[in-house]
Amino acid sequence: MNAHRFWLVVPAAGIGQRMQADLPKQYLTLNGRFVLDVTLDRLLSCGPWAGCVVPLHRDDRWWPVSSSSGDPRIEPCAGGAERAGSVLAALEHLQGRAGDADWVLVHDVARPCVYPEDIARLRATLADDPCGGLLAAPVSDTIKEVAPDSDQVLATRDRKSLWRAFTPQMFRYQALFSALQQGIHEHQGAITDEASAMELAGWQPRVVPGRTDNIKITVPEDLALAEFILTRQAAG
Questions:
Q1: Residue 125 contacts by C-beta under 8 Å, 6 or more apart in sequence?
Q2: Any idea of the CA torsion for 155, 159, 160, 162, to the nearest 10 degrees?
């Protein structure tokens, strides 16, 4: 039986430039609540977790008024300039507590619609895996390659082997720690998620099929879509 613990990391140090708002997207509201609070509530309901770490921007002034700030299960820490740096900061925060083979699940704070059953399936599917993996879905749209700084199509790409990466992404603590350290040092800019850091370190993460309504709030119109999805999910 796998006795390794599960830790949760939710990077929240971004400033959300594409949202065209005067505050980070994690502090915009969904049905009257911060996106951050909605996401963390949903994740924490999917435990048990050994702990939850939330890396924050050094100038964050909204965290103290969030409902999450009063949750004793959540530990904030200083985040980095980029996502990889924030996740690494969270892993450093867990040094001495997380075991090398413990699991770390990293989830985008701007994905409040993740389905609890998907998280349970991710944990169960990968529980005995030496590496780990991520929620993802096969690409269903036709994929066009477009020339840089242009609107001209260069080619149509075969989508048969392409998947859309979601979160959570779940990896062994020490393997992810080492991969991020190495990746930040050697491949800065090439690390777009935890799986890419693991790939650069020579691992082959597995994909676990997840629901496509696990959207990431990136542009303003995503807020209305997320509210719609959450309402539909709540209705059963």
A1: 133, 206, 208
A2: 120
Q: Which helix (H) or strand (E) holds 175?
A: helix 173-186
CATH number of 6-234: 1.10.3720.10, 1.10.10.10, 3.90.550.10, 1.10.60.10?
A: 3.90.550.10
pLDDT in tens, the chain (236 residues): 457 999 999 999 987 666 667 889 999 999 999 999 999 999 999 989 999 999 999 999 999 999 999 999 999 999 999 999 999 999 999 999 999 999 999 999 999 999 999 999 999 999 999 999 999 999 999 999 999 989 999 999 999 999 999 999 999 999 999 999 999 999 877 899 999 999 999 999 999 999 999 999 999 999 999 999 999 999 98
Structure tokens at 31: 């049905």
110 sits in the region (left: phi over 0; alpha: psi -120 to 50; else beta) called alpha
Give the C-alpha separation, 88 to 91, whole Å. 5
Instruction: State how far the Cα of 235 lies from the Cα of 98, in Å rounded to an integer.
Output: 37
Q: Phi-psi category of 41—alpha, beta or left, where left has phi over 0 and alpha has psi -120 to 50?
A: alpha
